[in-house]
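Appendix B. Raw example, untouched.
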Amino acid sequence: MIRQFELVERVKAYDPAADEDAINRAYVYAMKMHGAQKRASGDPYFSHPIEVAGILTHFHLDGASIITALLHDVIEDTTSTLEDIQKIFGADIARLVDGVTKLTRLELTSDQANKQAENFRKLVLAMSEDIRVLLVKLADRLHNMRTLHYIGNPDKRRRIAMETMEIYAPLAERIGMQEIKNELEDLAFGELHTDVRQSITARLEFLKQSGGNLIGHILAELNDVMGGNKITAEISGREKTPYSIWRKMQRKDVGFEQLSDIMAFRVIVENVDSCYRALGVLHSHYPVVPGRFKDYISLPKPNGYKSLHTGVLGPEHQRIEVQIRTRDMHDVAELGVAAHWNYKNGGPKTDGKQYRWLRELLDILDHASGPEEFLEHTRLEMFQDQVFCFSPKGDLIALPRGSCPVDFAYAVHSQVGDTCVGAKVNGRQVPLKTALGNGDQVEILTSKAQTPSPNWERFVVTGKARACIRRFIRNQQRSQFVALGREILTKAFRQEGYDFADKSLDGVLRLFKSGAAEDLIVSVGEGHHTGREVLLAVYPSLKDKAHAANVVSLPSKPKGTGRQIKRENAVPIKGLIPGMAMHFAGCCHPLPGDRIVGIITTGKGVTIHTIDCDMLTNLQDQPERWLDIAWDHGAETEAHTSRITMVVANEAGSFASLATVIAKSLGNITNVKVTNRSTDFFELIVDIEVRDVRHLTNIIAALRATPEISSVERARS
């Protein structure tokens, strides 16, 4: 454990103006408040905040951050209050401690995923005011991960490791804290995949023993090459972490033996000109590995990272990765946002561009319907590789790989995204679902009459775009349900000779657990309550007449309508009003497990389509016909018709083979159509009754393994 005078000396070494007295008082206060509390390791609890403060001194954080680290657990785990902190240490420290501390806990009934999402949401709000909150939180998580093995409950260890891998490591990468990010990932990897990490570590140790001082030999030759070309450089080398090796094995789908670039070397030079000179020397001396060169100097990462990356077949005939950068670039690469800290001015000396991602997270937070949706979108944001595009004015916008012009539009501004009608990429008009590439110049065409299309959610990638589209759809659907609910109530009231008005519902809102009259009207429109139920609640004297209206029953097959929904025997679809006619679209054959949407069809009620059905593109300009629906529990217990297309060998027994495979997989063939035939093959359309998407997927997999069947695909139109 770091002693008090050692901590002060560390801080004063890089920040002579730091408040030594305040750091000493915080050290003593933390020890006093945590008292006899113990950690899972058996160490005194106050050793944890002291170690967290020690981690931050490595990144040269200011005195306020060090004090915050010392105090970050006293409010949550001791009798100390925020008012006490403010009185003793001042408003600035109190604000930082308040940002780091988990001040409010969710109800005990909330599940763990919801709690995780809510805590992450609060963290984003806190760090949006001061990025030091995140720096302290990352150091806190790093020390917790270093001592994770002391926790006896394996489920708890796994949950903490998963949260670290999914949230904290990507956040560390976003602010350029590469060193913390690498250690967090490797520690979490060791808990989540213990055997795999041990295996990789053992193989690395074997290579080290069998190959001798290979890194030393390569370093010596690289130094000779640079020195011989009069380039002053500081060169270092290391083995890649077990986690980075495992990720590359997963990404390339290769075994450990097939990986050749498990060593990385760093060349630090005097200036940018020397970076490119060093790159030229390397490429002239050693064969270049195709596709491995990346120039992050001319096109930096959003977190400010700059460096040249290349892969060469280097000394000792080893395939190595080389990073070339200046000393300033190296500081930013290792320290991230901490490298920008300006102690004299008390704040970061930065233009703020690397905080763009934080503003985007806040936009997602504004548009998401709840903490779970927010966490879903931010995970998408943080885990995907990026492409860099330019606006017509030359502004650089980083987006996840696979993003389309709609994502670009929402990255510019929410209003630009909402009113987007088209896009030009490199001067040529393209479909809105076109994937953008590095260096594309994107111009967004807008119209005040345009609104977000539900179809956009099929191809957008960024969390902000998806959240904005969903919010618009939710608001639009609410207005539709308000209109429908008001119409249902007006009709129900009129049948008994009463006029309906919103204020007539005020006396029964508590009975239906609604906060306002409009909420109850929406509930009726959504089908949660009938107009008759509300009428009887408002006028209890009518209950003696209600026995004939308790169950709504419609003819099973009225002329001109599709399949009917009855309250007592409903097809399990959420979002459809009881009594509403519906049928499944023949173009896409939706199954339980598919994301679905309802389209109001004149004379047919509601047609159920999959969300990616091509037919929906013809309805983009008619949002009033769209209904948000989903499969309810129990949908998979019924038989649903699916459709597949097949190419089958034209030989004896082929039809028998496919029928046998489908029967053994518990599917039922209801129709077969030959669409094309030749001397060698038949092309077929086959309708099969299945339970859900998973059942169909299993059947398709079994069919693909049958020798007589050339190809099998699910039919989409």
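End of appendix B.
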